[in-house]
Design goal:
The complex is a heterodimer.
Chain A (H helix, E strand, L loop, with lengths): L5 E8 L2 E8 L4 H8 L18 E4 L2 E4 L12 E3 L13 H8 L9 H14 L5 H7 L11 H18 L1
Parallel strand pairs in A: 1-5
Antiparallel strand pairs in A: 1-2, 3-4, 3-5
Helix pairs in contact in A: 2-5
Chain B lengths: L6 E3 L4 H10 L3 E4 L5 H6 L7 E4 L9 E4 L2 E5 L4 H5 L2 H6 L2 H6 L5 H4 L4 H7 L5 H8 L3 E6 L2 E6 L4 E3 L2 E2 L6 E8 L6 E7 L9 E9 L5 E9 L6 E2 L1 H7 L6 H8 L15 H27 L1
Parallel strand pairs in B: 1-3, 2-3
Antiparallel strand pairs in B: 4-5, 5-10, 6-7, 6-10, 8-9, 11-12, 12-13, 13-14
The chains are: A alpha+beta, B alpha+beta.
């Protein structure tokens, strides 16, 4: 049967290797949630519009609903669960979002933070206007974006300080 | 929403890919997946076979030899956006890419995928038309070159045969210091354009326009080449008034209408985007001289 085509894959998620046999049609988002059981990656629209499922694959922010799990074979995936440096510590992005109320329900937050990890590494000192464009692919239905932008600007400053 | 069942193939060479495409029934090529994956998730397409191009060697590159620039079909939009070579030779491509989707989609999306999907509003389609690109396709009979003017056959229908694959897009760069402008109106940043315009201007030594290219995207199912305006621009001194006057008749062009955007609104945008793209091109060329 066609639906039963499966493949063995090996994906590194937040530094741990996961060997699984998956259906070839499984998306990376569903692989992370159902096979690896990391449910911090959220699935919103499932057609690449909302940005909630954004993760980093080999350091690049991508929509995990628009990639197949088999395409992540042999690659490094980073999700929200791997962002904090430890149990009791938050990443500067997480701390800034907490301090500025950059989230309400939190559904969109993992995707926003994944996007910002790549974007701020490349653009450490963005303007407010540039940040709005950078986050245009992440939809939030609670906050009205104001606090998200404030948090992102503050996170950029904290990351610059940490690097200095 | 989950993709329908399919058989998955991930060939490593172009020859293998062409053989698979020529022998498998109801096969689809998967490039960056930013259009096909949503269509699979929504089950708008039900292929029996999915041929993933992401491991095929030799399809991702940006190369130049003299004025000829070659871009591999699987080159990511993000790599085009950041290419120093394109910024120097074909600067309208990175300018247009600033409007294409988002960081996350450009990290995966490819130029070959965008042209093969051929959305009427896709920025890269409009720009390839303005640059008179040539599309190289490979099939069982070998390769052939398709001039971009013959590439879009109709709504989302490229001239690529069912057993052919786009491998490379070839451009002839305009002279150094040429003017380029890309303008579009979309409801949100990153959305497909409702109407877009790509303009290129080369100037003579006396400051008058030597050569012009002007194309509208999103208005009709295929790019709208504004040849009459291009001809009228030659020999003229650029000015806002000239651009406005020459672009005014664009409001009478044929235009698509749909549930969200009536044809009358696209017609309203046509002259506005055309003159803005020209003004940007003229401004950039002037800045390059001074």
């Amino acid at each position: 049967m066609q639906g039963s085509e499966r493949r063995a894959i090996s994906v590194s998620v937040n530094g741990s290797r996961h060997d699984r046999e998956v259906e070839v049609r499984l998306t990376l988002a569903d692989f992370l949630r159902h096979a690896v059981e990391l449910t911090g990656t959220h699935v919103g629209c499932e057609h690449g519009v909302c940005g909630a499922c954004t993760v980093l694959v080999d350091g690049l922010a991508v929509r995990s609903c628009l990639m197949l799990a088999v395409q992540a074979d042999g690659r490094e995936v980073a999700t929200i669960e791997g962002l904090a440096p430890g149990e009791d510590a938050l990443h500067p992005l997480q701390q800034a979002f907490k301090d500025h109320h950059g989230l309400q329900c939190g559904f969109c937050t993992p995707g926003i933070l994944a996007t910002l990890v790549e974007y701020l590494a490349e653009n450490p000192e963005p303007s407010e206007a540039e940040l709005k464009v950078a986050l245009s692919g992440n939809i939030c239905r609670c906050t009205g974006y104001r606090d998200i932008i404030a948090a992102a600007l503050d996170a950029a400053a904290r990351l610059r300080e940490a690097r200095a | 929403m989950k993709p329908p069942p399919f058989r998955y193939h991930d060939p490593r060479t172009l020859a293998e890919t062409v053989t698979l495409l020529g022998t498998l029934e109801n096969a689809k090529l998967l490039a960056g997946g930013q259009s096909l994956m949503p269509m699979l998730n929504m089950r708008f397409v039900l292929p029996d076979h999915l041929i993933d191009l992401n491991k095929v060697a030799g399809l991702a590159h940006v190369e130049a030899e003299g004025r000829t620039v070659r871009i591999g079909a699987m080159t990511r939009q993000r790599d085009l956006e950041r290419s120093a070579l394109l910024a120097a030779k074909l600067p309208i491509i990175p300018a247009a890419l600033a409007h294409v989707g988002h960081l996350q989609t450009r990290n995966r999306g490819t130029i070959g995928g965008s042209l093969s999907h051929l959305d009427p509003s896709a920025e890269l389609v409009t720009v390839c038309a303005a640059l008179d690109a040539t599309v190289t396709v490979a099939g069982p009979g070998g390769t052939r070159a398709i001039p971009f003017s013959e590439f879009p056959l109709g709504y989302m229908t490229p001239a690529t045969g069912l057993d052919e694959i786009v491998t490379e897009i070839v451009f002839e760069a305009w002279p150094a210091g040429h003017g380029f402008g890309f303008a579009e109106y979309a409801r949100r940043h990153g959305d497909f354009a409702i109407v877009s315009a790509a303009a290129l201007l080369a100037f003579r030594d006396d400051g008058r326009i030597g050569r012009a290219a002007l194309v509208l995207g999103g208005l009709e199912p295929v790019p709208t080449r504004l040849s009459a305006i291009e001809a009228a621009l030659a020999g003229e001194t650029p000015s806002e008034e000239l651009f406005a006057e020459l672009c005014r008749p664009c409001a009478e062009l044929e235009a698509m209408g749909d549930a969200l955007v009536p044809a009358s609104y696209r017609r309203h945008l046509a002259p506005v985007m055309a003159r803005r793209a020209l003004a940007r091109a003229a401004g950039i060329a002037a800045a390059a001289i001074h």
